[in-house]
Amino acid sequence: MKIAISAESTNDLSKELIAQYDIKVIPYQIVHGEKTFKDGEVSTEELFKMVDESGTLPKTNALNEFEYTEYFEELLKEYDAVVHVTLSSGLSSSSGNAQRAADNLKNVYIVDSQTLSTGIGLLLLYGRDLASQGVAPEEIAKKLEARREKLQVSFVIERLDYLFKGGRCNSLAYFGANLLKLRPRIVVKDGKMTSDKKYRGKMNMVVAKYCQDTLEEFSNPDLERVFITYTTATEEMVTAAKNALTERGFKNIYETHAGCTIASHCGGNTLGILYFNDGE
Predict the structure, then answer these.
(1) Is the Cβ–Cβ distance between 42 and 36 less than 8 Å?
(2) What's the pLDDT at 249?
(3) pTM of the model
(4) What is the DSSP letter of 150?
(5) What's the CA gap between 185 and 206, in Å, rounded?
């Protein structure tokens, strides 16, 4: 049985991994002023330049039911079934729209990831592993839903201005964080983003401490694969993360860039490590 493993562009997998694992992607639409473009058509650096010049954040349009229907119907011309992993329903209405489209089609299975970025990517690669083993599509969907609870998805952010502009941070927290030069850790929990820990100092030192804390707190990782995902980052930041993950014993460390949808909420110099916390 030929199964399509699919997601929106918010999965943040690299083009190489998308090709290697045959992942199908439907892009979000980004709107900035009078410009409209698909996620992936503009780099993160270009997006940040647009925001710096205009002072306003772009908006992301949730995909509607009709767009999903067309997309799934096209996939079903080539594949026998589709397992589609959506951006968390706690962050976007796209998940519900995808489910309504699937309800009117045969052999399309929707999985609400309850997460974002390469947290979705981890589910996609796991889904492809299962499909390659001959697991039926409905069973793949069930296994993905079960394993999403074991995801460790978090980021450390240098500045809060993008969260503030996007309405995800109040003015008092924004002012205090800037005054004290705090770098918050953002954790995705129960499908939504929340801040728990705060760090201070240069970002390469912050990343090292963030990785140490995260690996100690989520201390049972599946060592098969881990992602270092960032909007922009210095070489020192990435090296600090790689050193921590190599020391912990991860076999495959993938470095990826967050796309425009994710970057528009977090801003520059945001870096996260993401893995399944269900090792044997």
Answers:
(1) no
(2) 98
(3) 0.92
(4) G
(5) 10
